[in-house]
């Protein structure tokens, strides 16, 4: 339980070997419910917090990682702070030292798409690529999306060059192709299990 005088981020200080025993937990500090999961595989520890529960330092790390990849690496200047973060659940994958290496944001229906929850800003640090962090991140994000928003289909706007990656998780193209900030994207939907 997170309380006054206790470490609000126990996954940073708990030894990695101990974390294998833990799974997702619901915590209700002050009557507010949020997911505070911590579980480790591939040496990343995951948490999922609503915007209001992020610390200033956590938000800074999230924005820095997103800007490093989406703006600097992809050479695509755009306004990343689009107002949707306020309504999102933020999935963060950290190494044993607490460094943010993988991230997504989960949005309920009505924010990005009228009738679909969505997963967006899927990013892994260049330092972690090739180690399976992206696959693990997306699977965790799908699982958390189902947990948070129920068994509704999930819709995403995928960079077109990553279609095969998302198809590997069951996402299917809707045929809606578009340019977003000069980068080709395709809308994709992950249907309920058994409807793929």
Account of the protein in words:
By secondary structure, the protein is of the alpha+beta class. It has a domain at 10-142: 3-Layer(aba) Sandwich (Aminopeptidase), CATH 3.40.630.30. It is 24% helix and 29% strand. The strands form three sheets. Strands 3-4-5-6-7 form a five-stranded antiparallel beta sheet, with helices on both faces. It has a three-stranded antiparallel beta sheet with strand order 8-10-9. Strand 3 (40-41) and strand 4 form a beta hairpin. The protein is globular and about 40 Å long. Mean pLDDT is 81; it is low at 1-31 and 36-41.
Query: Which structural category do the helix and sheet elements fall into?
Result: alpha+beta
Shape: globular
What is the CATH architecture assignment of the domain at 10-142? 3-Layer(aba) Sandwich
Average pLDDT, rounded to a whole number, is 81
Q: By CATH's scheme, which homologous superfamily of the domain at 10-142 applies? A: Gcn5-related N-acetyltransferase (GNAT)
How widely separated are the two ends? 39 Å
Kindly provide the name of the CATH class of the domain at 10-142: Alpha Beta
Strand order, largest beta sheet: 3-4-5-6-7
Order of helices and strands: HHEEEEHEEEHEHEE
For the biggest sheet, the summary is:
5 strands, antiparallel
Strand content: 25-35%
Helix coverage percent: 10-25%
**CATH topology-level fold name of the domain at 10-142:** Aminopeptidase
Discrete helix count: 5
Low-confidence stretches: 1-31, 36-41
Task: Give the radius of gyration.
Answer: 17 Å
Question: How many individual β-strands?
Answer: 10
């Amino acid at each position: 339980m997170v309380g006054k005088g206790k470490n609000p981020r126990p996954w940073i200080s708990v030894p990695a070997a101990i974390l294998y025993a833990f799974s997702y937990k619901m915590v209700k500090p002050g009557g507010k419910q949020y997911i505070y999961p911590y579980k480790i595989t591939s040496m990343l520890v995951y948490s999922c917090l609503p915007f209001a529960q992020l610390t200033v330092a956590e938000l800074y790390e999230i924005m820095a990682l997103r800007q490093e990849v989406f703006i600097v690496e992809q050479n695509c200047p755009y306004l990343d702070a689009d107002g949707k973060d306020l309504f999102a659940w933020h999935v963060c994958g950290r190494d044993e030292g607490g460094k943010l290496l993988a991230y997504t944001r989960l949005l309920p229906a009505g924010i990005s798409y009228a009738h679909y929850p969505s997963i967006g800003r899927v990013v892994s640090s260049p330092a972690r690529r090739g180690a399976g962090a992206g696959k693990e991140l997306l699977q965790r994000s799908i699982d958390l999306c189902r947990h948070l928003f129920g068994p509704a289909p999930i819709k995403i706007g995928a960079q077109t060059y990553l279609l095969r990656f998302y198809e590997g998780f069951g996402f299917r193209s809707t045929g809606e192709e578009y340019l977003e900030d000069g980068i080709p994207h395709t809308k994709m939907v992950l249907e309920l299990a058994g409807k793929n």
